[in-house]
Amino acid sequence: MHELSIASSIVKTVLEEVKNRNLKTVTLVSMRIGALTDVVPDSLQFGFEAITKDTILAKTDLHIETISVKGCCNNCQHNFEVFEFVFICPNCESNDIKMSHGNELEIAYIEAED
Amino acid sequence: MPDKIAIEKKVLSENDLLAQELRTKFQENKVFVFNLVSSPGSGKTSLLEKTLGLLQDKLNIALVVGDVQTENDADRLIQAGGKLVRPIVTGGSCHLDANMIHKSIQQFNLNEIDLFVIENVGNLVCPSSYDLGEDMKIVLISTTEGDDKPLKYPGMFRKSSVMVVNKTDLLGFSDFELHKVKENARQINGQLEIFELSCRTGEGLDTWIDWLLEQVILKKKEI
Q1: Which residues contact B161 (CB under 8 A, 6 or more apart)?
Q2: What is the Cα–Cα distance from A66 to A86, expressed in whole angstroms?
Q3: pLDDT bracket for residue B35 (50, 70, 90)
Q4: Would you tell me which of A49, B16, B37, B77 could form a disulfide with B82, CB atoms 3.0–4.6 Å apart?
C-alpha cells in the first residue's frame, strides 16, 4: 500500500503548479501509469480522495491511463507488446528484452481554471 | 472551459533525483551497493548474517536495515559481527525511500566501505518503485513459498538483477519446484542471475560469496 505516498507526491506536485501558475481550481489530474509499476489504480483513487478531502483539490478528478508493457528485443530489434509479463520475443524467441513501456508513473496533464 | 496544462512530470522525480545523487556518491567512493528485497520471512537477515560471517575479514561492510517496527534485525546483524549496522525503522511505511538512505549514509565514512547493503522492508510490491541509488536489486525467495511468486510479483522480478533461492535444504518438503521457479523468473527476466543456497546448512553459500566478492572487485576497478 504505497499508493498513499504516491498520492501525496501527486498532490504536492499539483499544488506547486497551482501556486506557480496562479490557478483557481484544478478540475482534473491525468496520470499515466505503467502496468508493471505495481500501483493499483483503485487504491490510488482512494488515497487521492482521502488526502484531498477538505483541500482545494477536493473536487478534482483523478484520471488514470494504464500503459501496457512493451518490449524491444535486443537480439532482432523487434518491438512488441508484452502479454502476461512474458518477456520473450515473439519473432526470434530471445529473452534479452529491453522494456520500452510499462514503468510510467507520471502526471501527464491537468485541467484547470485561472 | 478549463485549460489543459501539460505537466509531463514523474511522480517520484524527487526520489529519483536523490537516488541519482546517492549513486554518484557511491560511485565516487567505489562502493558496491545492493538493495535486498523479499517477502517477510524468506531469509534476508539470515543471508546477511552468513554473508557477514564469511566476508567481514575481507571487506568493510555497511548495512542499513529497514523494518516497519523494531530494531531486531539490525541487532541480529550486530550479533553476527557487523560493525557498521544502522537500523531504519519506517514506522509504518512499507518501503525504504532514497531520503531514508540519504539520511543514513551521513553516519558512514563511505571511502572506508567496500560493500553497502540495504535490507529493504519485507515486501515484494512497494519497494520496486523506489530507486535507492543501488547498483542492483537482489530478490530473495525461499522454497517454503510458492514457485509461482515471480509471476505474482513481476515488477520486482523484472527490476532485479539477481534472484537468490534460499532454504534449499527444505526442497521436497513442500510443492516448491526449483526448475519451475527458475522458469517463471526467467520468463519475466531472461537476464536474471540465479543462486541456490541454504543459509541453514551453508550449501551453495560459497558460490554466492565468490560472486559478491567479484562484484566488489569489479566496482573498485571501474573508472
Answers
A1: B136, B137, B138, B191, B192, B193
A2: 18
A3: very high
A4: B77
Write down the ipTM of this complex: 0.88
Q: Quick one: pLDDT at residue A1?
A: 63
Q: Are the Cβ atoms of A95 and B153 closer than 8 angstroms? A: no
Q: How far is A30 from chain B (nearest CA, A)?
A: 9
Nearest to B2 among A106, A108, A111 (CB): A111
pLDDT averaged over every residue in chain A: 94
CATH class given for the domain over B13-221: alpha beta
Locate B214 and state its grid cell: 567479484
Q: Which amino acid is at B127?
A: P
Q: What is the pLDDT of residues A77-86, one digit of tens each?
A: 999 999 999 9
- In the three-class reduction of DSSP (H, G, I as helix; E, B as strand; rest coil), residue B81 is classed as coil
**The C-alpha cell of B189 is what?**
527476466
For B96, list phi and psi in degrees, rounded to 5: -90, 150
